[in-house]
Every structure is written in C-alpha cells, then in structure tokens.
Fold this sequence. Notes:
Elements: E1 2-5, H1 11-26, H2 32-42, H3 47-50, E2 55-60, E3 63-72, E4 79-87, H4 96-110, E5 115-120, H5 125-130, E6 134-142, E7 148-157
Amino acid sequence: MIIRPTTDADRGAVDALLARTYPSLLKADYAPEILDHALPIISRARPELLTCGTYYVVEEDGIVLGAGGWTPDAKTPDLGHIRHVVTDMRALRRGVGRRLIGHALDVARGADIGRMECWATRTAVPFYTAMGFEDIGPIDVPLAGGVIFPSVRMTQAL
Length: 158
C-alpha cells in the first residue's frame, strides 16, 4: 500500500469511493431522513481538499482503498483538523484508515501542529478512539444548503 497526496485528477476515484462507502457504513448510525439530505453532499470529493497537499489516498495495485487528510486551522496556528476520511468497505480492518491517519498525524507534527481535532461520524467514533482521539461531545456540522449533520467532536494532543 502506498500513501500519496491527492491531485484534482483523483476526483473521480475519491467520488466513487465516497459514494459506494458512506451510504452503507453510515446507515446503522443515522436515520434515513438525515442521510437523504447529507449523503448527496458528503459523498462527493471536496476540490479544495484534493489540491491542498495534505489530503491523501491510500492505493494498492493502483486501486484507491482510502482517502483523507488534514488541514491547519485558519485562526489557531497549532490546531489541525482531520478531513473527509473514508476507507473502502472491501478494505476495512486491513489497516488502511490507521495508516492514513497515522501519516496525517506525522505530517501535522512536522508542521508544528500541537493538537488535532476531528468531527467524526457516529460510525467512526470507535476508530478515532482507537487512534488516540478523545470524545469531546456531540457537534452539529453545518453542510451546504442548511443541512445539519450530527457528529462527534474529538481531539488529540500531538
């Protein structure tokens, strides 16, 4: 498996990964009426992330198995945010997410980020807990079009 920064050329692969994975993984933790509004928004790659330099894909034999990364906080210099993480359902429990987040945290430490925060889906809380993040509490994440997506704010000192 290799981890590399994304480019805009990865948009189709990341879109496909999000579109096939999020609906299946999230349905156990969210009501259908929430997913009906949120999935069209969150199941698309964010162009600004694809070209930021700190958003990555995990590939094996040219197949994208995971995507995600981090960005620095706009106002707090030592704070970073985990961003739009997904692991292909066919690759769960193979270390894809762990490698991806581990890489992101290592790069963030090298950029003098002292604390990382993520707004995790309810589904991802056990994963982030296993990665050393602490559950701070619920947070309503505003999405495009006034859609609110219930999430969990988590943090980790680096």
